[in-house]
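Prompt: For my understanding, could you write out one protein's sequence and backbone structure tokens?
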Amino acid sequence: MHALTVWFAWLSTVVGTPQPRPQFEPEITARKITDSLYVLDGAGGNVAVFIWEDGVLLVDDKIPPASPKLQAAVAKLTPKPIRFVVNTHWHPDHRGGNAALAGEGAVIVAHENVRRRMSVDGLVAVFATPQPASPPRALPIVTFTRDVKFHLGGEEISVVHVDAAHTDGDSFVRFGEANALHMGDCYLKNSYPVVDYNNGGSYAGTIAAADAALDMADAGTRIIPGHGSVSNEQELREWRGMLAAILEKVKALAAEGKSLEQVKAARPTREWDGKMTKSFVTADHPIEEAYRETTPGK
């Protein structure tokens, strides 16, 4: 079967019915950050590629059908082996290459909740997408509860768990010398946030995660979102401000006794609707999640 046919067949099975659907560019493109750090975009979530004298560390590894293209893209940057893969969370567009890379000798590392979610059948309700349990080879074999550090080629790479945000297993990966921060899907550039609420995600937690990232960043930090081009402190601050403003607007409307449908009709996202040009969800999703947390039990 042609590669693109496989690509779209996979996409149709894992992406649910809400509009707009996630769209992934099938080709992988490398963007240089430093001589030792690159970002691979396309074919799923953004992958950070760190190269040191003895090998390669990846942050995330895209969707399953893209594994050969991912390995080829890394091989264009360096002939060194992929030694480690850090998963920022459990969604298949960020850990879909685990099995293939583990089969080549890579050590998969993630928060313990990533392994727990991957080990059983699940559902991403926001996209109405069932997720079958992963095969044993795809599971992280090194897990942590709060944080872990790699010391590779003079670079200190800090992997830091953030409390329930996009999911309950999110981690940031901070490259100290390169002054770069991979946020996984806790930050989606030019998109409304996606809150995987039935897998521990939280709207307020996504705001808190942005605050945590801003505490780690400065004006020179290159911020790698889960999807979208490499960003910076100011853009992240503006995105965080949007989330907080939507939450406050929804709170105010809910306090007036308005139902969810009435809140949606008031369009509290109006200010940003035309700016979220790469959004994975409609404006209804952040409204629903803000309302869910503002009116528990309803």
Summary: The chain has one domain: 3-241. The CA atoms of residues 248 and 290 lie 9 Å apart. The first strand starts at residue 29 and ends at 32. The two ends are 48 Å apart (CA to CA).
